[in-house]
Amino acid sequence: MEQVFSAINNVFNFVTPVSDFFWDFPTNLSWYAAIPILGNFSLAVILLMGSGIFFTIKTGFIQVTHFKKGIKILAKKKSDETGISSLAAFFLSSAMRVGPGNILGVTGAISVGGPGALLWMWVSAFFGMSTAYTEAVLAQIFKEKKDDEFVGGLPFYGKRLLGNKLWAGILLSVMFIVYAMCCLPAQGFNVVSSIGQMASIVTGVTLDTTSIFYYIAAVILIIATAYIAFGGIKKVTKVTDKVVPIMAVVYVVTVLLLVIINFKSIPYFFAAVFSGAFTPQAIFGGAFGTVLVQGVKRGLMSNEAGQGTITMAAGAANTDHPCEQGCVQSIGVFLDTMIICTLTGFVIVMAHVWSGAGSDSWFALDRLPRFLASAEVLTPGTAFNHIVAFLLTFCFCLFAFTCLIGMISFSEIAANRISTKKTFIRAIRVLGILITTFGILCSLAGLDLGNLWAISDLGNILIVFANIPLLYIGAGYVFKATAHFKKEGHTPFNSDVIGISCEYWDEKNKKQKRK
């Protein structure tokens, strides 16, 4: 069995260098790298940061002016049975956003780029909020009704924006499904390994991955995943509605306690972050590119703004206006990066472990133990150590599990762009469960298939390159919808508002007029 796993791992030896090439291009070309300052900026950074700035200006800083509006929309209840509420869509998208990347991504960024990378995560997230708004509005404008659900997102608005060509929707659906399926093994691995770690913390005994406990946990996880996945989007949202608030609150409260206990280190935290991002050596030397790219790269891994991968949740919501869900999705980026990732950064930077020997190893999946080691430094010699370690591992487990079911659920939505046949949709669910099982088996075998996990980084950047151009193609529709949304007492949204056919919204208006 180990030989099979190793063979699969070796097949993906090419992934890391290819991923690095796309993320670093064209800074990996000597003539471009020689350009002062500009030579530090890769195309990925320019696209993500530049687009965020552009959409922020064109929407009138919508992420600031309508932040409170987004909160009010989350509190609004919908009586219509079609689709899911804005709040349910927010929790569903947060299930994907608030994942292991909030711990692994931040530790990776800081270990390679230093504390300064955290500042660039904040900057990219602020402007990324407007990018998330833009893609969510497009998902709402071009969503479609299927039975008692809505389906929408990248494959759907991509198809419409590219001349309503069938091949465009299919290609984008396949891209997302492949990306999601390649991410699933890591999530299965993370869930089982974190369950084992929690058991070890409680018992005080390190459990072997071949123990009966791991096998029982694996079987329960597979059954639970299958049960939720085959329940459809509404079953998934019932789970995320309950789990996401729990994991977010537990994580925030636990880390805030650590910060309060170590309040004397707070000035050090901010000094390290700002000095690491703005030192002259960093700005004019090669270090700046590393700090900036790590901040943007790992920020994207966490909040996914600009990827289009969260748009399936936005398209599934039942709203009165497309821009409502845009405001909600913008808040999702804020929660993910400004709150969750910042708290992770507090633990890592304040513990000083990031600068120690062997920090490069944080790129492997042993970053959870490294993160827990940082938390332990902040609670030395107290009985609180085990409680904190258990709670943080518990949150990490939930992060991975919600991300796991979110990936399968979003793959199902994307699959609807290819075919709505029930047999095809069931096949996608089964495929997701089988690939998750593979990741679980890797954990039981004690293997860390680093090359396979690295494919998520490659998937991230390839989907960015596919999605960002689409946002510019559809930007005009978003800006018109936004102007309409901002008007007091605006008329119902329909095709006339933006100048392109929106079948669902036109049909909705006809029904309302008949009433």
Radius of gyration: 22 Å
Strand order of the largest sheet: 1-2
Q: What is the total domain count? A: 1
Report, as a whole number of angstroms, the end-to-end distance. Answer: 64 Å
Q: Output the structural class.
A: mainly alpha
> What overall form do the CA principal axes indicate?
globular
Q: What is the overall pLDDT average?
A: 80
Q: Into which percentage range does the β-strand content fall? A: under 5%
- What is the number of helical segments per DSSP (H or I, 4+ residues)? 25
Note poorly predicted spans: 280-286, 356-366
Helicity level: over 70%
What does the oligomeric state look like here?
Answer: single chain
| Main sheet specs | 2 strands, antiparallel
Kindly provide the name of the CATH class.
Mainly Alpha
CATH topology: Amino acid/polyamine transporter I
- The string of secondary-structure elements, in order, is HHHHHHHHHEEHHHHHHHHHHHHHHHH
What does this molecule look like?
The protein is mainly α and 515 residues long. It is built from 25 helices and two strands. The chain has one domain: Amino acid/polyamine transporter I. It has a two-stranded antiparallel sheet. It is globular.
In short:
By secondary structure, this protein is an all-alpha fold. 75% of the residues lie in helices and 1% in strands.
Strands, helices and their partners?
Elements: H1 2-11, H2 15-24, H3 30-33, H4 43-58, H5 62-65, H6 67-75, H7 86-97, H8 101-113, H9 116-141, E1 144-146, E2 149-151, H10 154-161, H11 166-203, H12 212-229, H13 232-261, H14 266-278, H15 280-284, H16 286-303, H17 311-315, H18 322-351, H19 367-377, H20 384-415, H21 422-444, H22 450-453, H23 455-486, H24 495-498, H25 503-514
Antiparallel strand pairs: 1-2
